[in-house]
Amino acid sequence: MAIPKHDELRIPSLNLLLDGKTMKLKDFIEPLSKEFDLTEEEINEMYTSGNGHIFYDRISWALSYLNMAGLLDKPARGNYKINSKGIEILKNPDKINTYVDEKVAKRDKTKKTNKNPEIKIIETSDRLTPQEKLYTSFSNIRNSVYDEILTTILSKTPTAFEKLVVLLLQKMGYGGEIKNSGLITQRSNDGGIDGIIKEDILGFGRINIQAKRYRLDIAIGREEIQKFVGALAVAQSNKGVFITTSYFTRGAIEYVENLFGNTTVVLIDGKDLASYIYDYGLGMQIEQTIEIKKMDTDFWDSMSDEL
After folding, report:
1. Rounded distance, CA 268 to CA 264, Å?
2. pLDDT at 117
């Protein structure tokens, strides 16, 4: 039997979770392989690039889409548990794939409405060129990783998040070659400052950080940014970065845009945070490199044409 597509794995995956247990991604392999009567060769078949097992990857995508559609919860990274919505929709299994596809397609529209940093999944079309399909697939994979980054951060402690954002700013080049340029403040007496990046050896220049590990749907408003600006004034600093896993209200953004004097505050929301982590490779591994070549026009034009 051919290896099932990811959408064919959705319903069987939900059924495996109906008893309320939590399962790791790898725990789905054996029961689903039996469900589809797969051979050992099919279970272990890898992509032609050699990067990853096809069946495992399709299970991962099936679970990812079910989670994005709100039918599964992720109590921890790589762990899945069915929720009440998933149980309810399983009563009408014929509607599940349509429901999931519609929910995923609406994610970008939802983001534009409430400004939360949920990730956009782009639909592919047969009208796209092979190159366009490749770029679209790359974008979808990247956005799915953004989603996983934020979910993982939310499973960590606030202190771990503070350490993460300090590491990220260092990875982005802030603090340069200065030894121990980043530090976490004591939570009991941080004065509204969670972390500090020293910009010079003596510490005359400092970037102060506030890190808020909020649920993706909880907005950060103007009042919280005002408190941070006040904390900067007390710390006699004019540079601040406010980083969150969620999003900022329009009022918060406008307040920062209209700051007077020498104080500069940069806002980094959940989507930007995930993007920076991805782009700067913090806690990331390169899974696969694809090399695409095109004709060298100058080379071929320099050759004599046949008369």
Report:
1. 13
2. 46
